[in-house]
Amino acid sequence: MPASSKQYFESKREIADQFLEILELGKKDGTFHPDRCCREIILPILNNFGIFSQQLTISYSVLKIRGDPTPVQQLKTISQT
């Protein structure tokens, strides 16, 4: 695996680990519902966000996006190849 790919996947793993740590802390202090906030739910959300971010980077200039993209806009961006 090329060094850049290895670094990318290591960074992705670090981000996931940090989110999972926040998730565990939130479950302990009651901020997050333990049945709804679990690894099986959070990791696909993070992966979808990663896909959206990659497509956004490839497809659009960040300067063209104003405000928060709607779910429909996000889905369109992910669907574009």
Protein described:
The chain is built from 3 helices and no strands. The two termini are 24 Å apart. Helices cover 70% and strands 0% of the residues. The chain has one domain (3-79). It is mainly alpha-helical and 81 residues long.
Content of β-strand: under 5%
* Low-confidence region ranges: none
Shape: flat
First-last Cα distance: 24 Å
The largest β sheet comes out as:
none
Q: Helix count?
A: 3
The number of E-state strands comes to: 0
Which class best fits the helix and strand makeup?
mainly alpha
- Total discrete domains: 1
Mean pLDDT: 78
Secondary structure layout plus pairing:
Elements: H1 3-29, H2 39-59, H3 71-79
Short description:
By secondary structure, this protein is an all-alpha fold. It has three helices and no strands.
Question: Which features does this protein show?
Answer:
81 residues, mainly alpha, flat
